[in-house]
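anyone seen this seq b4? input:
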Amino acid sequence: MLLRVTLHGYRDASLTMVQITQFMLGLTQNVSLLALLIVGYVWIRRITKMTPAARDAALGLLFGLGAVAAMLTSVSLGTGMLLDGRTILVGLAPLFGGWIAVVITDAIAIGYRVWVGGPVHAPWLGMVVASLCGIAFWQFNKRRNRRPSFVSLWLLGLLISAINLSLILIRGGEFAAYVAGDLLEAVAIPLLVINPLAMAILGVAL
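predicted toks r here
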């Protein structure tokens, strides 16, 4: 059963262990659902009659829909503010599907996030950062002609998570009107642990 967790982290609300536990369980469930993409990825790769462009497009569609699924089972910090594993798929799309997958994945994921909306400006900014980092990582490994290692994928996930958390801090005044500061501090460490690890595991599995 899919669970969407909402943490009531508004200003002046006290942070409890129950909320932290809800966050940990919700985010873990969220990224674990991404493992289902392995089945779709293997199925697409096994279709022999697809052209390379069609295969990359199919992978872009798979990653894009996976990002939407992550948002549908996200951890909510308040009205329209979502924390989930969408940036994992946006960051990995270039590595496995090239430019075609990048365009399709970003269009689906960013389009859906804009449609959902939220109380802050540019809620899609984190996915743009993830996409740019993923493209740079893809080009770097392409020049080296080597498959990325677990550690390098983990570092990519750590970089994406760290930058996105930095964006929250930079826009702290905007977020402070909706989410209590202690809640943002509580989610920082889990995000820096769970998302990078999930990216490394999924990247190696694919």
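The helical segments are 17-32, 37-46, 52-72, 86-116, 125-144, 150-170, 172-176, 181-205. The two ends are 25 Å apart (CA to CA). kinda curious what u guys think
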